[in-house]
Amino acid sequence: MEGMAGQKSSLTWAVNIAAFLLVLAWTIPTLGLFVSSFRDRDQIASTGWWQSFSGSEQTGFVRTGTDDDATQVDGMYVIEGNVLEGEQSLIAWGTGARQPAEFQPGETTQIEDGWDLTVNEDGSYRLSSAEPFEMRRGERIFTTTEVPPKFTTANYRRVLTAEGLGRAFMNTMTVTIPATVIPILIAAFAAYALAWMEFPGRAILTAAVVGLLVVPLQVSLIPLLRLHNDLGIGKGYLGIWLAHTGFGLPLAVYLLRNYMVGLPREVIESARVDGATEFQIFRRIILPLSFPALASFAIFQFLWVWNDLLVATVFLGNTREQLVMTGVLRELMGSKGGEWEILATSAFISIAVPLIVFFAMQKYLVRGLLAGSVKGG
Amino acid sequence: MELFWLAISTIVIGVFGCVAWFWGSNMVLDAIYPPRGENAGDNIRRANQVRPWLFLGPALLFLGLYLVYPVIDSLWRSLHNADGSRFVGGSNYSWLLGDGKFRESMRNNMLWLLVVPALSTFFGLIAAQLTDRIKWGNIGKSLIFMPMAISFVGAGVIWKFIYEYRAPDETQIGLLNWIVTKLGGDPQIWLTLLPWNNFFLMIVLVWIQTGFAMVILSAALRGIPEETIEAAILDGASPMQVFMKIKVPQIMGTIAVVWTTITIVVLKVFDIVFVMTNGQWGTQVLANLMYDWMFRGSPDYGRGSAIAIVLMILVTPIMVWNIRNARKEVR
Question: Where is the ABC transmembrane type-1 domain (chain B) (predicted)?
Answer without folding.
Answer: 106-322
